[in-house]
Amino acid sequence: MKNLYPLLFLIVLSSCTKSSKEDVILPTQKVPNAPANLKIAIVLVGQIDLTWNDSSTNETGFRIERKTDSTEYSEIATTNQDVANFTDKNVQINTTYSYRVYSYNQAGKSNQSSNERTVKTWNIPTLTTNVITDIRISGAKSGGNVSSIGGVRDLIARGVVWGTSSNPTVALSTKTIEGNGTMFPGSSIPGNGNGTYTSNITASKEGTKYYVRAYATNIVGTAYGQEISFTTNVFTFNTVIGANNRVWMDRNLGAERVAINKTDEASYGDLYQWGRGKDGHQIRTSSTTYISSISDTPGHNFFITGIDWRNPPNNNLWQGVSGVNNACPIGFRLPTTEEWNTELSSWSSASPEGAFASALKLPLSGARGINSGGLIDIDVWGFYWSSSVVTNDKSAYYLAVSETKTGSVPNARGVGMSVRCIKE
Hints:
By secondary structure, the protein is mainly β.
């Protein structure tokens, strides 16, 4: 009988232990409440930010699902508990995305998702190139029509770009820049850049084919309109007989025609710095630089600001038909100051009226200043270079034509003035 007691004890103990496990009741975990008030926003290119309200206290985290117009919803990411925001950086431009968010835990995901939100990502602008008009020796006019700025608030820039090779891009310096992201004249909505605009094309070579495209830039990138092309006019001229039977060109260098009145813009022509050749700087809207040249040929088409474009000066650049940089056609040269004075003495009056009434029909074509290269005294003064220089100075003589003074005076060689050529 003694041996039965331990056995009975084990049976009783085993029975009690089994009964205690079966009596434990584990709580059932519930799925979390669905998140609410999902919001989405595009702040940067290639990125969509999501935020939502956490409506549960027992979630493990959140599951973010996304779809496009061509795909179904699928999970793209999860966040941890209490993290109610997410940034989607795997997005393409010009694509519509829809989002919804679920909360989840070990029991599963919420029975419903958050509200759905849809957004279309930004795109590059959409535009066309305007037809070419007003073709001249030194350029033409074009422009563009921006029909969409790509969903952004404003454009950064718009204009036209041109070059002598096909498909010019904004990497070129030969472009116009219209607007600054805050104001675009002619826009259908002020400030954003939509609408039609006109741009002036500056060409440095006559009789040359140029390729043109309108462009518009926003935060996403730059878009272009269709390419068009044009060929600049070739400078042509006839001759007239001035004082002492001297033969002159009938128009200014670079002019489209003989002046029909003293303020005829088409007769103004180019503006040369004294002694420079026909390198493109003479175009009235050429770019500027403050860096002077150490040679007779700067190697670029920038207007060089300052008293003299060349350092040191060279007095022999425009001396006669064989002058180093004679800008006149073959057989012609710049007149001396004495020749200008002889011509002036034959006029009916020393005035703009006398200048236009003369055989030369000189217009009031203005000049370009030495400080900024900006146009000055248009329609008010005529400035006509001579080949004569001021010895030991950075000046040269020119013929001034205005209501207040008409005669030969010196001025800085860095000024941009008209050129009228005389036959040798």
